[in-house]
């Protein structure tokens, strides 16, 4: 598979209209282009329009938004459990309500009877992405239409899973550049669906997307300090190969255009990480912290050379470095996926804080990564990659997987259609 040697090789328009990381810093007044509103009718960029990404991400289309959409600054993902007695009729009603409310809010229109319409008028690249767990298919009376891979992942040797972050019937991922809008949208959806589904877990994450000297968006960093998201699908062909389910991969025609979402909650042991020196950190990742370059290269998008041997006679990129094990260097591109991970950082709870010194409060903060990825089939991508990582990744010293859930993301909607209508209808 071809990779970009530099994001700067792409024109601003193609970068933002295919996929890449767009600046989430519009509010800070940093120059970024819009995906769709880049130029005026005569082709000249309207200054205000050019400075700010288009606040509307189209809702309808062949795929749901919030996947190929360049990452936004905020992500709140909520998993739901269907209420007792919810059957096929109620499932359809719920999806109908949610889809039409999400469609409105993402377009900058308030939902009917919204008493705070001001909170919907500027969507700030709001996207709402809905996914189904196996329980949804069963409740809808179409259990036989669930993708075969849908359900818990096999156990990995390093798992420390807490069922609190586990499989549920439904998921809603809400992303946007404006935290208030994201929060408002979620409240509307939770309230609108309250008769049919109750929120079961909520994961809230953030990212800061830097802007390079050329005005192009850069790769955001995770809380270990590394650029995270360098190796990802960028072009339509990459997405077709790695993310969107096609006819040959679908076990039901209405899966086509959908994808598989895996959400792993990964806790970081920050005090231990902070006791590791910079070289140890870089060797464990196989990349430099400053540039995000492979240890065998100089720039972020340089191809890693896993065969390179250093002056000391040892491989420059350790065989157990994260990228050596996570990367697909044997040519099996089916193992690729879209990673759309968000940082989380929660203060220590009052119960745990009682009687602790201030320094302990910082040390005990609950910090990590909401590792969300999208792929055509986890059996050929996430599972083999995570198996290699669980067995040998140097990062394992500092991380624990504490949550795991898998959802089928139905394809996008036509105007007026509800999520999964062709599958459930
Ligand atoms: C919390 C744990 C993790 C951290 C901190 C982390 C961080 C990173 C970083 C910094 C990179 C290099 C830059 C990039 O390409 O984005 C990377 C690459 C990658 N990671 Fe992770 N990652 C984690 C967990 C995982 C998991 C669970 C998987 C999948 C099972 C995974 C799959 C990958 C892949 C496929 C790459 C690209 C490798 C390549 O082709 O060079 N990562 N990760």
UniProtKB/TrEMBL annotation:
Entry-linked SUPFAM superfamilies: Dimeric alpha+beta barrel (SSF54909)
Domain Dyp-type peroxidase N-terminal: 64-206
Keyword Nucleotide-binding: no
Pfam families to which the protein is assigned, alphabetical: Dyp_perox_C, Dyp_perox_N
Cleavable signal peptide: 1-28
Domain Dyp-type peroxidase C-terminal span(s) in chain numbering: 219-413
Cofactor requirements of the protein: heme b
Any GO molecular function: heme binding
One term under GO cellular component: cytosol
EC number: 1.11.1.-
Keywords annotated in UniProt: Heme, Iron, Metal-binding, Oxidoreductase, Peroxidase, Signal
Location of region: Disordered: 35-62
NCBIfam families per the UniProt record, alphabetical: Dyp_perox_fam
Protein family membership: Belongs to the DyP-type peroxidase family.
Protein name stated in the entry: Putative deferrochelatase/peroxidase EfeN
Lineage of producing organism: Bacteria, Bacillati, Actinomycetota, Actinomycetes, Mycobacteriales
Gene: efeN_2
């Amino acid at each position: 598979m071809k990779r970009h040697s530099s994001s700067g090789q792409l024109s601003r328009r193609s970068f933002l209209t295919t996929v890449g990381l767009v600046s989430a810093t519009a509010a800070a007044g940093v120059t970024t282009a819009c995906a769709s509103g880049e130029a005026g009718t005569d082709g000249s960029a309207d200054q205000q329009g050019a400075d700010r990404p288009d606040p509307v991400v189209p809702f309808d289309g062949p795929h749901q938004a919030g996947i190929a959409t360049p990452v936004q600054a905020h992500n709140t993902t909520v998993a739901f459990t269907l209420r007792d007695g919810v059957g096929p009729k109620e499932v359809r009603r719920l999806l109908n309500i949610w889809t039409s409310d999400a469609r409105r809010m993402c377009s900058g229109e308030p939902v009917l009877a919204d008493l705070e319409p001001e909170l919907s008028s500027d969507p700030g690249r709001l996207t709402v992405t809905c996914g189904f767990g196996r329980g949804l298919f069963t409740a809808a009376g179409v259990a036989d239409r669930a993708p075969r891979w849908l359900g818990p992942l096999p156990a990995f040797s390093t798992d420390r899973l807490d069922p609190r972050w586990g499989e549920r019937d439904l998921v809603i991922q809400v992303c946007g550049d404006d935290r208030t809008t994201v929060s408002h949208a979620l409240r509307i959806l939770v309230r609108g669906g309250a008769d049919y589904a109750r929120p079961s877990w909520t994961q809230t994450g953030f990212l800061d997307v830097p802007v390079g000297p050329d005005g192009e968006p850069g790769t955001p960093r995770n809380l270990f300090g590394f650029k995270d998201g360098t190796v990802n699908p960028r072009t339509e062909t990459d997405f077709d190969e790695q993310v969107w389910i096609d006819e040959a991969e679908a076990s039901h025609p209405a899966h086509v255009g959908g994808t598989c979402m895996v959400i792993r909650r990964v806790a970081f042991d920050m005090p231990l990480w902070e006791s590791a020196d910079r070289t140890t950190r870089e060797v464990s990742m196989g990349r430099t912290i400053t540039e995000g370059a492979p240890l065998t290269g100089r720039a972020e998008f340089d191809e890693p050379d896993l065969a390179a041997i250093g002056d000391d006679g040892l491989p420059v990129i350790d065989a157990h470095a994260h990228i050596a094990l996570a990367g697909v260097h044997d040519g099996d591109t089916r193992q690729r996926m879209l990673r759309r991970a968000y940082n989380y950082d929660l203060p220590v709870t009052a119960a745990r804080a009682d009687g602790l010194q201030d320094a302990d409060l910082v040390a005990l903060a609950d910090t990590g990564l909401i590792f969300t990825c999208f792929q055509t089939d986890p059996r050929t991508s996430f599972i083999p990659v995570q198996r290699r990582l669980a067995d040998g990744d140097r990062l394992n010293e500092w991380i624990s997987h504490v949550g795991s859930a898998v959802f089928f993301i139905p394809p996008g909607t036509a105007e007026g259609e509800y999520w999964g209508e062709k599958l459930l209808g």
